[in-house]
TrEMBL record:
Tail specific protease domain residues: 243-430
UniProt KW keywords: Signal
Species annotation: Flagellimonas yonaguniensis
SUPFAM superfamilies listed in its UniProt record: ClpP/crotonase
Signal peptide per UniProt: 1-19
Protein name from the UniProt record: S41 family peptidase
Amino acid sequence: MKSTILLLLMVLTFPPLTAQKSPYEHLKTQLPPEDLKSDIDTWFDWLHATHPDLSYTVKDIDRLYQSVAQIRDSIIHPMEILEFWKRISPLNSQLSDGHTFVGYINSTIVEDYILNGGNLFPFEVIFNKDDLVIHSLIDGKPSEYMGHQIVKINNIPIETITSSLLSRINGDSEEHRKAILQTKFSIFYMLMYGEQQKFDIEVLYDKKTQVISINGICGLPKLYREETFEDNFDLKILDHENAVLTVNSFWWDDPERYYSFMDTSFSALQSHGISHLIIDIRKNGGGDDQFWMKGILRYIADKPYRWGSNYKKKIIAKFRDPGEVIGSIKEGEIDTLIPVDTTATNTFKGKVSILIGPYTYSSAILFANTVQDYTFGQLVGEPTGGKSGQTGSIQFFKMPNTGLTAVSPRFYLERPNGGKTTEPVTPDIIIDYNKLSPDELIAFLLNQH
C-alpha cells in the first residue's frame, strides 16, 4: 500500500490554457459556470469508476450525492478557482477517507505564494485534547507563547475557524483531520480567510487571557520544508535496557540507505544488550509496506504473517489481469504468508512497544495491525485517527478546466484478523499525555515497564 504522505502533499496541476500564470496566480483565474460544472461531473464519474465501494468510507451516501448536486446547481456565475475550491472542498469531510479527496494545495502553490511576498499566520499549532494551542513559530523557532490556547484570531472565534477548515480536510475521522490540519493550519487559514498582514490573537494561558498582536510571517511552514533522513529516522539508546527507534515515514527516495540504517540499528540493539525496543510511529503517515516488512518485521517477527485478510478492489484498465472486466469489483482474501527471515543474525528477541496516535495512517496502520494481530509487540498511546481497514493503491485525476487534483483508492483491505474495519486501531495500553511534550508518553511507558 504505497501512499506515503501523499495525503499531505497532493499536486495541484494546471491545464495548458493558463500555463503562463504562476501557480498561485492560477488560483485567481475566473472560469465560466459551465466549465466548473463540467469539472464536477467528470470528477464524480471518475471517482465512481475508480473507488471500490464509496459506502465503505462515506457515512451517508445519500447526503454526499445531494451535496454534490447542490454545489453543482449553486454555480450560476463565473467564479475564481480558489472560490470553486472553497465550494467543493467540504466534500472531503463527507468522503471520510485520507485517501479520497478533491482539490488540494501542494508545496508548489505555497512556495510561489511565499516567493511573491505572501504572509502567513505566524505560528505552528497543535491540538492538545480539544484545544488548539501554539507550538512554535512557523519557521520552527521557539515561541514564548508555546502552550497558549488560541481563543480568537482577528475577532473570529477559533471554533468557527477550525470548523470551516476541518470540513475541507481529508481524513478518516475528526481526530484524523485534526492531526492533518495542525500540520498546515497557516496555509488553510490563508486560503479560507485571505492574506492578512497583522494578526490579533486572543489566547488563554494559566486562566488569564491576553491579545497577541503580531505581523504575518513570509516563510515556509515546517511541513513544506525539505526534510532530511535524520528528521525521519533515528535510534536513541536510552539506558542499558531501553531504546527508541523513531520512524516518521515508511518511505525514502533511497531505500537502500533506509534498509542499511535499520540493519545497523538492530545490530546496535544487540550489541548494547537492549531488552525493550520502543518504535515511535506517531508521526508516520504511511509509505510502502516493504519498508516495514523488510526494515522492521524482518528483525522482530517470530512467526509467518500476512499483512491483511479480506480485500475488495475495482478493476481499472492499467491494473487489469487476464480475464478481468474493467469496472467490475473483485473480492478475495490474502492467503500468502510472509515467512520468518532465518538469515538475519541480528534479530531482536526482547519486548517491543509501538507508539501510535491520530496521525498514524495508511501503511503505518497496516504495520500496527500486523504487530497487534500477531503479538509481535504491544501498541501504546492513543487510538489512530484512521480506520483499521485501510484503502490503498491511490489513483490521481486532474480536473480538465480548473486543474484541481482529485485522488481515489482502488481497493480496501481488512486487518489480518478481520474485525470491525471502520473502527480505529486501539492500543493495548492507552496513555493520555501532553501533546506539547511528546516524550511524556515514553516516560509513562518506561514507568510501567
